[in-house]
Structures are given as C-alpha cells and as structure tokens.
C-alpha cells in the first residue's frame, strides 16, 4: 500500500487535507467598526455601497448620528478601512471610542473627548503610556491630587 499512497499523492487534484500545496488560510468572522463623517443621506449611501460589494461581507450597518460604519463578515479590517477611504474619498479611522463604564477614570485628560458620541470616551486601554491618569489606581490618584491646583485642599507648600 505504500506505493499506492505515494502515487495517489502525486496525482491528487482535490482540495482535501492531503493536499499540502493548495491550503488556503480561512478568515474568521469579524466585526469591523469604522468612524466616517457623514453629513447627509447621500454620504450615508456612498459609505454603505463602498463595502457592500466586498467579498466576505455579510452585513453592513450605518449609524449617521454617531458617524459609525459597522461591517460584519469574513474580511480583513485593514482592507475594509482602505476600501472605505478610497471609494468615498473621506477620512476614515477605526472606531476610537469605548463605553465610559469600561474606563476607570472616564473624565481624565486624554480619555474624555468632546466629539465622542454620548456615553463613549476615547479608548485609553490600547495606549496606557499616553493616558496614565485614566488608568491610575486610587493610590496614584490621591498622590496626584494632593498637589493639584484644582484641589482646594491641596498642599500649598510648593
């Protein structure tokens, strides 16, 4: 049987598990959230149509009040972002906001964003070096506020 197995591997044209040459990487189902500025229904329609025809896209949702595009499917997030930027000509970026309940100190400088939709703040969990105060523990916050100008009971020795 060893010779027959060898010959069958040489002439195997199927996409089965024994074919080592034609293995294709399968993409996982992903939800991609993108921030795109939309002013009117025409902008909304253009943004939606830019990704509807992509291979692997199963669902597209547009929320013009939040300036948010949600794409669900077997897609690469970078390709979706690039396609939205090229097809619409608009500035687009990955959704930079998270619900404010997730962040320990949502109103710390760097986390709070006036342009964020209601109930959302900047995602400080991705870049902890830039936004140390938003991720500070209660002990660190006590020491920082002890010498703060905003605190009326702060130390005035300095």
From TrEMBL:
Q: Which UniProt keywords apply?
A: Cadmium, Lipoprotein, Membrane, Metal-binding, Methylation, Prenylation
Q: Which InterPro entries match?
A: HMA_dom, HMA_dom_sf
Q: Ranges for the HMA domain?
A: 29-93
Q: One GO molecular function term?
A: metal ion binding
Biological-process GO terms, alphabetical: response to stress
GO CC terms: membrane
Secretion signal, residue range per the UniProt entry: none
> Where located?
Membrane
Protein family per UniProt: Belongs to the HIPP family.
Name this polypeptide is given: HMA domain-containing protein
